Amino acid sequence: MTSFQTGLSEHRRAGTRFINDIRRGLQKAYAEENDANGLNQSEIGRRLGIHRSVVHRELKGVENITLRRAGELAWAMGRRAVVSFVPIGAPADSNHGGFTIEIKMDISARVADVTNRLTVRSDNVIPGQENDAAVPKAA
Question: What is the pTM of this model?
Fold first, then answer.
């Protein structure tokens, strides 16, 4: 019986790991948003103007995704992608140690929305005058 062994160069292996890390980050973000907010693939597709089956294929790894699409998917989930490159051999949170990928929730817009609706109570109030003042809108 003939057997085949294919070798994968170090640079190809690093590229493959990078793609897999991004896909796993997106899958984890999707699972968290689905559990927390009921976000589904149809809603992600609607936000991006694509069919939900495309979202499914990209998240499952059936279809390749570009870095742009990874950013778009993260945005549709209310998150932003954060990528950092560290020297090879440096300690990292994963078992391969070349880079780390995180998909984080982008709450800056949500914080600004909430801040714009908050009111502050002042302790220095003259009796008979209004004691609520609106918080200035964030720039």
Answer: 0.61
